């Protein structure tokens, strides 16, 4: 009996893949990602090509086309996957990239900027010397601190990634 293989010919135990997908997806759910997007993202991450169609995701995860669609919509909005059209077809493939974590964190930086702007407005509206204004000022200072560290960390990652993988 031969071991199952991927489309690229790599040996693969479907049960082991399923266990990994469910285990890592559970970790992502614990961190705040919705369950179905976590499962879809992990299935893509675990595929050798980093791409799967809606039908392939549905079959692998035993979920409905509507569940795939909702998960893909969410993951697209948070920049954790991209959509690609298959040449000559109306069918889409969904792809995770090797830099998906970088992209997701970079997108978070834009969100933090918007939060900072809203907090500044809140401090002005509530008054910087009120208890609420001081709390908002401290929250703003926290986000400004995090933003600086994330930007520096992402630059260090680009250099480190280049050394490890030779890609930028």
UniProtKB/TrEMBL annotation:
Residues 32-92 form the HTH marR-type domain. InterPro entries: HTH-GbsR_regulator, HTH_MarR-typ, WH-like_DNA-bd_sf, WH_DNA-bd_sf. The keyword Nucleus does not apply. It comes from the Bacteria. The keyword Transport does not apply. Signal peptide: none annotated. Keywords: DNA-binding, Transcription, Transcription regulation. SUPFAM superfamilies: Winged helix' DNA-binding domain. PANTHER family: HTH-TYPE TRANSCRIPTIONAL REGULATOR MJ1563-RELATED, HTH-TYPE TRANSCRIPTIONAL REGULATOR MMPR5. This is MarR family transcriptional regulator. It comes from Streptomyces actuosus. The lineage of its organism: Bacteria, Bacillati, Actinomycetota, Actinomycetes, Kitasatosporales.
